[in-house]
């Protein structure tokens, strides 16, 4: 028999919306199962993702976009050719 532990947490409306969206997309019927699946997924992520500074990366990307340091491609083939160059 699996053992389990009961915890109570407060979740912001923004986070709960994310759980709701996941639940809907994954065809999960209840909140408890959705939260459990999300926790298992998060715990299985490689260590790199646990320490990666996503906010810093987003800020760097925003700075690059503001400075117009980006490229546009009209097709996937054009994009792939640029990657190979």
Describe it.
Helices cover 64% and strands 0% of the residues. The chain has 85 residues and is an all-alpha fold. It has 2 domains: 11-52; 53-85, no CATH class. The termini are far apart.
Identify the notable features of this structure and list them briefly:
85 residues, mainly alpha, 2 domains, 5 helices, 64% helix, elongated
Q: Which percent band covers the strand fraction?
A: under 5%
The percent range for helix content is: 55-70%
Spell the H/E element sequence. HHHHH
Query: Which structural category fits the helices and strands?
Result: mainly alpha
The whole-angstrom Rg is 20 Å
Basic shape: elongated
Low-confidence stretches: none
Count of distinct structural domains: 2
Number of strands: 0
The total of helices stands at 5
Distance between the termini: 57 Å
Brief overview, please?
With 85 residues, the chain is mainly α.
Secondary structure elements and their pairing?
Layout (H helix, E strand, L loop, with lengths): L12 H13 L5 H14 L2 H5 L2 H13 L9 H9 L1
Helix pairs in contact: 1-2
